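Progress note, sequence design subtask.
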């Protein structure tokens, strides 16, 4: 990755050329639209151009972040997404669907049919002189399956494009508010903010070594994950062990964010005192 935590496209080109030079055949590049740790979006346009140059399949992991492409103000960040041959998307993340709901979008559905379609003798679904139906077993591994798509379709119909724009935009604004509050607090270090994802760490007001801060924040994550008031996950950003807050709930409010800051600081102080006492022994 580069300094911005995006895929290093110069390294990508070098890897492709080294493969070809050594007699190997690269066939696919996976770009990221919303990195799981920081929310960063790769330079998808440049990756798409490289894939076209070398005739490679261009897949985008947009499991978390791709829905933000619906926002006009985010269009530049997702430039190149439309060039993807396939996109992974998890509606149970930023489309607010109940677990579980994951899907793959493909530019040319025929690729799926060519790969998965099977017609044994006991499959007789399309009689002569009848319009050809859509049989979803031809588009993936499963034959019999539950109707997972129903809950996604219902939400799309009920909320609509404008509703998703409003909710996703608010989540991004809340994550930025989280970042700004952390930035202003003397005992917190705001590390990254992208999309609806903020990383930060508790640093205390006394100067501490990086090794100690990493240990402190790792223990703090463990404490917060068993806490009855909130739950945060973790991320490691440029060797810093961070707390990670990813907002994908339309019920989250500014008050929630303010309380999260208070809890982090309160629990961080307690943990820092405990660890400092142990080190002094």
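Output:
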């Amino acid at each position: 990755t580069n300094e911005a935590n995006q895929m290093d496209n110069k390294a990508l080109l070098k890897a492709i050329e080294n493969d070809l030079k050594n007699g190997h055949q690269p066939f696919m590049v996976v770009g990221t639209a919303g990195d799981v740790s920081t929310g960063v979006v790769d330079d998808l346009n440049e990756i798409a151009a490289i894939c076209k140059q070398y005739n490679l399949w261009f897949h985008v992991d947009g499991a978390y972040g791709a829905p933000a492409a619906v926002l006009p103000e985010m269009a530049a960040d997702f430039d190149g997404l439309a060039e993807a041959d396939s996109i992974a998307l998890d509606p149970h993340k930023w489309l607010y669907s109940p677990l579980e709901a994951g899907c793959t979008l493909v530019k040319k559905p025929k690729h799926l049919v060519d790969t998965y379609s099977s017609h044994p003798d006991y499959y007789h679904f399309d009689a002569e002189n009848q319009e050809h139906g859509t049989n979803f077993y031809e588009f993936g591994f499963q034959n019999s399956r539950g109707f997972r798509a129903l809950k996604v379709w219902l939400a799309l119909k009920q909320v609509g494009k404008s509703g998703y724009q409003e909710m996703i935009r608010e989540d991004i604004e809340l994550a930025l508010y989280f970042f700004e509050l952390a930035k202003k607090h003397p005992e917190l270090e705001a590390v990254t903010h992208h999309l609806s994802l903020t990383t930060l760490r508790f640093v205390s007001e006394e100067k501490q070594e990086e090794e100690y801060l990493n240990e402190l924040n790792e223990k703090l994550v463990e404490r917060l994950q068993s806490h009855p008031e909130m739950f945060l996950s973790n991320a490691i950003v440029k060797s810093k062990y961070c707390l990670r807050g990813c907002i994908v709930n339309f019920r989250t409010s500014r008050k929630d964010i303010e309380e999260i800051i208070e809890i982090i600081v309160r629990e961080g102080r307690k943990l820092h005192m405990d660890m400092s006492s142990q080190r002094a022994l």
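The longest helix spans residues 149-184. Work on this subtask will continue into the next period as scheduled.
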